Amino acid sequence: MSDLINKTSQFFSSGIIDLFIGYKKGRLGEGKPAFFTKPDQLSELIFDENCIVNLAVYLRKPELKKYSKIGILANFGTLRALLQLAAENQITDGQYLILTVADGKVLEFANLKAIEEYVANNLPKPNPERLALLKEIESKSREERWDFWTRELSSCIRCYACRAACPLCYCEQCLVECNQPQWVGVPPTGLGNLEWHIVRAMHLAGRCISCGECEAACPMEIPLGLLTQKLNMTIISNFGQIPGTKREPDYALSTFKVDDKENFIR
Amino acid sequence: MEYKLIKLEKIQEFINSLIATGKQVLAPKQKKEKVFFSLIHSFEEIAMDYIQTAFSAKSAVFPKCEELYTFEKNGKETILNNPQAPENDTIVFGMRPCDGAAFDYLATFFLKENPDYHFKMRYDNTIFVGLTCSSGDEFCFCSSVGISPSDTRGSDLMLTKTENGYYVEIITEKGKKLVEQFANFFEQIEQIDKTKYVANIQKRFDSSALKEKISGAFDWERWEETSLPCFGCGTCAFSCPTCTCFDIQDEANLLGGTRYRIWDTCALGIFTKHASGHNPREKQSERWRNRILHKFLYTDEQFGILSCVGCGRCIRNCPAELSIIEQVNAITEG
Amino acid sequence: MENMYLPYRMFIEKITEEAPLVRTYRLKFKNPADEEKFSFKAGQFGEYSIFGEGESTFCIASSPTRKGYIECTFRVAGRVTKALANCEEGDEIGFRGPYGNTFPIDDWKGKNLLFIAGGIGLPPLRCVIWNCLDLRENYRDITILYGARSVNDLVYKHELEEWNNRPDVNLFTTVDPGGETPNWKGKVGFVPAILKEVSPSSDNTIAAVCGPPIMIKLTLPVLFELGFKEENIFTTLENRMKCGIGKCGHCAVGPYYVCKDGPVITYKELKELPQEY
Lengths: 266, 334, 277
Ligand SMILES: Cc1cc2nc3c(=O)[nH]c(=O)nc-3n(C[C@H](O)[C@H](O)[C@H](O)COP(=O)(O)OP(=O)(O)OC[C@H]3O[C@@H](n4cnc5c(N)ncnc54)[C@H](O)[C@@H]3O)c2cc1C
Ligand code: SF4
Ligand code: SF4
Ligand code: SF4
Ligand code: SF4
Ligand code: FES
Known about the structure:
heterotrimer; A: alpha/beta; 2 domains; 5 strands; C: alpha/beta; Elongation Factor Tu (Ef-tu), domain 3; Rossmann fold; 7-stranded mixed β-sheet; 6-stranded antiparallel β-sheet; 31% strand; binds flavin-adenine dinucleotide; binds iron/sulfur cluster; binds FE2/S2 (inorganic) cluster
């Protein structure tokens, strides 16, 4: 940890950064997001496998505009989010100082390409428990699946915490807030909830970097990450594209190829 | 005041008879990792081992989505219909004293000025059965906001678990009626000293120091710095027992529809945004400030009541782990 | 107890096209009993609804002295106003109100009145202007300064003419530079500049100002220069609203609810509020 604190502190003193987004000890000992503006605050800085919040979500905050250069301590999900954000032209190469800690060593990424390589070499296998859960749902009949999801989604209160926590839900105006026409019903009733979750999942299909923040933020314990995960798996198996691994645009659902195997698109 | 005892073995029968007579019983129930107030169908469903529910029971009187009225279109005419009052009484069973105090605040807020038809309709039909806290966690701070873990405020009946069973304080007429209706579960008993059954909840901040500082706190320079981790998910408000804000929305087809009110919160950017695009609270730090000041200053000015009851939900639920306790301490420290 | 959210059923008796995307509706009660029990005062507002689309907040733009109907003037801004604009004469809409506080016109007796409005800010003042004109003997000089972006954007064109022809009203109309037409007889220039030029006396005078925030911001210094006291300058606030009755929380500015403590406010009071409007 002292290595991390020393390095970060040097970035401050040499004027490379004026804000550092990292973690400090949270309520149960896990890391909670923390913002450091002075080197003397860094004694609280921590990083370990319990630092799970995806800090990339903060980069869109207007409050951060006043800082000239921001450093960010990225866990794996954050690195993938940064790549995906770059691929979607939301951030540029070199805009942030990006650090991570691997095998006890602080890594500073020279550029997005370096992150790309790091991510490619460390991509984890999908969590077997989640896969089993997905399999279980897939094995249900249509009617059972419908019952399962209508039951789960009926408790949704439409707080949009899932959206707020997602590093890739950055639209200035979310589709659910467009009211001319009102695409998605606002009241948290059956239909509106279903529409919202379809919209959310579809807009993240092939973009979701599987950090799990949406589900973690949901106060109602809805397993909504399963929806995006399922769509992602479909995209990966059909098009071979893994979101959050490339810094250049590479997005199946907005790519047109003359030799596409589907007729309707040609 | 009258006092009763429900023997431990009788409590199950009592709850089950409430259900059997058609009462809607809302009680703490486990759902995955958390405990929520839910409609229960038998005593076994009630969760016992938890500090506080993830959400309060406010939805009993202020549901997440509620019909204001319905409309039917009949040519150029429109027929408007009032919502139906719930047919059966609702019993909120096992709410914590902080939540009881919160219902007290809600009643003041909704009924004092421009009394709210929908709230009253549900409130009048709801019986609140409180349960004394025998333990707390580091996020409980009722005692810092003038509420005790055995407070009877807002409860119709107050239960305290003792070696012999549940000690019952009959607080209101409503509570008395319920006891009379189910008299065979209750035994007569003398008043007891509850102290040894009550949790000791530490003071987490100095309320008089806060009071001094809070009136000038709007211009405090650290709002932005202290709220940076907040990403505006709104969970703090949705789970808060005293947050009352709502949106009004229609759902309709060509024949008619419903005008609903649904939970909303000042934590969200569009809450104050005008159609012109102008937003009086442009930044999350301004929204966070509004939340804190609403709880600790504005409702005090309006009704003479702090509207934070110290339940700690906003802290336990915040995905970014913001803490209202830390915030208040930061304000008092200057 | 009454369901405060249930609106009165009204029908649109008359539609006036005021300016591009701005219309005035004259509304009458469908149910005579509702009309009987309804009363309001200058400065109040209501929630106008299109069932299935939602509600929108507008001031009552007609004067309480004109009985039997209310009028509203609105600009198409979003979902509800768009749906409203699609209505025709005879159509039914909902109205609930009146809500909010009022201009204290009784306290203004024996004083000079100066009304300053910009663009779509005239409707709230039109209510109080007509109210005072209908009780003309109570007040001394009445001066109205009204500006819009262009001649086409002026609302209540016929009434401006009527006021212009009245000997007991001093009316100044102005349009922004470039907004004039060849036969425009009013002034050309922004409201604060014209106010400076007209330079009305602040002696025993109440000023009421309504318009876009930028206009209000630039007009206030001119009023102070003219010697107006903060407590004699009135304006109306506009915040996003939903319930109109102090419950939904949307309109709150600190402990102040625009819908029930406002919308009418003096500059003196406004200065005390947090800047959240
Ligand atoms: C006290 C008061 C008096 C007003 N008087 C007039 C008037 O006389 N004429 C006029 O044209 N406009 C007036 N407005 C502004 C008017 O209410 C909004 O322009 C209008 O509600 C937006 O229309 P919408 O519902 O079509 O927009 P949407 O964008 O579809 O709005 C959705 C919701 O947002 C709220 N909202 C959006 N913008 C505003 C806003 N600027 N102010 C308040 N609420 C908003 C409304 O509650 C509306 O239901 C007044 C506002 C207030 C608060
Ligand atoms: S966070 Fe949960 S409750 Fe909130 S909108 Fe998303 S799914 Fe619904
Ligand atoms: S729960 Fe936390 S992150 Fe969400 S709005 Fe409240 S303070 Fe912000
Ligand atoms: S503000 Fe937080 S601690 Fe206070 S009552 Fe609300 S949820 Fe509970
Ligand atoms: S203004 Fe904010 S803090 Fe206050 S009740 Fe509404 S949502 Fe809760
Ligand atoms: S409009 Fe709902 S509180 Fe003012």
